[in-house]
Amino acid sequence: MAYVLPQPAIALPPSITFDSIRLLTKPTACLECSKVQSVGDSGVSKVFVVFLNGLVAPQSFWLPVMALMMRRLKIGDSGIGGGASRPQMLAYDRYGQGRTIDRDPSDEGKEEGYGHDTLDAVHDLHQLISQTTEDSDNQPKRLLFVANSIGCAIARLYAHKYPGTVAGMLLLDSIMANSDFVSIFPDPDSPNFDPGSLPPDVTPELLYETREKFREVFHPSVKNPEGLDRRSLATLLPDADKPSLSQGFAGIAPLVTVVGHDPEWFAEESLQGSMKTPISISMNYTNPTWHRYNEGLTKLTSPEKASGPIIAKDCGHFIQRDDPTLAAELACGMLGMLAKDS
């Protein structure tokens, strides 16, 4: 049973519409999308908010966040102003994920499970954005990525691949892109291993067991249902704080807000989940390593543009599911700052 608080049902406004889109670069397959059209002519309407999924949580996890954002924007309590102005929004399921049942056409003829990688996902995202961006007096829109897990890595790769486009990133419990998720834990077979340095409730046998479980489930070589190959990710993003994102929209460093899971909540969730990871393992190894990675992410942009790491209380890895209100508030806060700069 998932260690989550029950969330109240959030009614979806009719302004959230659903569409199937064929990329011009891949016309034989459809991507399933959730869209919101922009309204008004304030700085808010000049922003394009794009939600980026992890491997497990599909676009449906973003729908409550989108609804809550529109509610806040409509009643004007977010400090943004502009009455009922709202940004364009887009959430989507990548090929082979969520409501997108079509497979990536580029996978044909390749080894199953390793057909396309994160750079391919970035190229698809760029094409999707180009086909869905609403015209605004021939002026490009500021991109605001709201991302979770591997979606955060895709956001970073996009900003690096297409400089001058991204104005902000809200990174919700980013994947540790440079990790193999095994070396987080000490290796009892290492010649430098010191059993005396272990916490009282951690044994070499427990480390062996944990490393093997993580190797089987989280190692970058492990295949996933959508066929997204993660083996090159550590090479593409070897550092949490590099490459720099100094070249954001219009040459201005982007806003970057980093949010991490609640360490104690995550530890309990990991114990109750399918991995049955002991709390001592999460608290002594996984959580500290992840927090250091999040600290590095805040250095991707200039100091005055960075915020965090913020700890999302009572949230595990899927922060947008566990606390959509927090995600919506933080996204609206970034919208307000971007609107003032427009």
Automatic annotation (TrEMBL):
Gene3D superfamilies: alpha/beta hydrolase
One Pfam family hit: Abhydrolase_6
Protein name, entry field: AB hydrolase-1 domain-containing protein
Entry-linked InterPro entries: AB_hydrolase_1 (IPR000073), AB_hydrolase_fold (IPR029058)
Span of domain AB hydrolase-1: 49-327
